[in-house]
Amino acid sequence: MTHPISEEWTALAAAWQSAPVAHGLSLETLMRRERRRRMLMTLVVVSEALISLAGLAFAYLAARRMPASGGSILVGGVVVYIAVLTAFTVWNRRGTWRPLAETTEAFVAISILRCRRGLRTVRFVIGIVLLQLLAMLVWTMLEPFRVGGMALLLSAGIGAGFLLWAIWYRRLMLRQLRLFESLVSSR
Amino acid sequence: MVETGPRERFARLLDEHGPALARLAAVYEWDPVEREDLLQEIGLAIWRALPSFRGESTERTFVFRIAHNRGLTHRWRQRRRGLDLSAAEQLPDERSDPSAGVAEQEQHERLAAAIRRLPEIYRAAVVLTLEGLSQREVGDVLGAQENAIAARLSRARRLLRDLLNAKEPAS
């Protein structure tokens, strides 16, 4: 004997599948899309590398205008800064790779993890900005390494930019986290 | 037909599951243009995941897992963009197959609109069931036990009934 609920589902399934929908999927179109995606990813990686190199180049040029000791500290500081950022990024992304064919439950779990790591990134960025501001303050007070007003302004501007980004990104991560956590709590 | 490579296998998957994927995409996106984009994303995700598929599940389960995961990501992006999701349910599908009967199409659209209004946790189980998956297969896709799926479907069926009868769903 068929369970009543199965009969209802059978009727609904018939209604659901009765109207054929043209899907329009074709291998050629998807391959073109895949090529565009790879080009975009390559562009992102190259851009990140170029920005890091630009930061180093800027530090080198600025250091040439300073006393030798101050210049060395500046370049060394930028190298350490980039190294710390890179190390944190690699460490923070561990285990957040999202396999496409996992169950929905696993997919949601990894999505939640990515959100929490995103919030960790926000805390890290705020910490780095505060350290940077502290370093600039100390630098302005120590005679041999004193920096010019332009460098201070630039540093403050970059710090403010990062803080604005951190505020925006935190809101984004919290919103995403609420969405995915609601899927878990609804079970 | 003998499959000679991944492209042939992928083409076969699209042939077999394309219509089901299109129906599923309609649940996650009401706008025809955005829906087409979502469908392309699903197709691409299946292509990228295919090399790692070793037959641990059925092909149907494999395909639907990917499709639902992409659907979830798409829904999140919609919310991030602040799009009005509630406006979706009343609009007809302008890109429906013109050769289909009008009554059947309207019935399908009404059902799709009702499913879109279900909570996320029920929507996936309902759509997979309507595509003919068993409760075990639905559980394989969603990563849930069979009895949990049965409970969700039971609750979802009551909500759907209320929505299709144009009543406010019981809380």
Write the layout of secondary structure elements.
The complex is a heterodimer of chains A (187) and B (171).
Chain A: H1 4-18, H2 27-64, H3 68-92, H4 104-141, H5 149-185
Helix pairs in contact in A: 2-3, 4-5
Chain B: H1 6-28, H2 32-49, H3 59-80, H4 102-116, H5 120-130, H6 135-142, H7 146-164
Helix pairs in contact in B: 1-2, 1-3, 1-4, 2-3, 3-6, 5-6, 5-7, 6-7
Short overview:
The complex is a heterodimer of chains A (187) and B (171). Chain A contains five helices and no strands.
How does this model look, in words?
- The complex is a heterodimer of chains A (187) and B (171).
- Chain A has 187 residues and is mainly alpha-helical.
- Chain A has helices at 4-18, 27-64, 68-92, 104-141, 149-185.
- The radius of gyration of chain A is 26 Å and the shape is elongated.
- The two termini of chain A are 30 Å apart.
- Chain B has 171 residues and is mainly α.
- Chain B is 68% helix and 0% strand.
- The longest helix of chain B has 23 residues, at 6-28.
- Chain B is globular and about 50 Å long.
- The N and C termini of chain B lie far apart (51 Å).
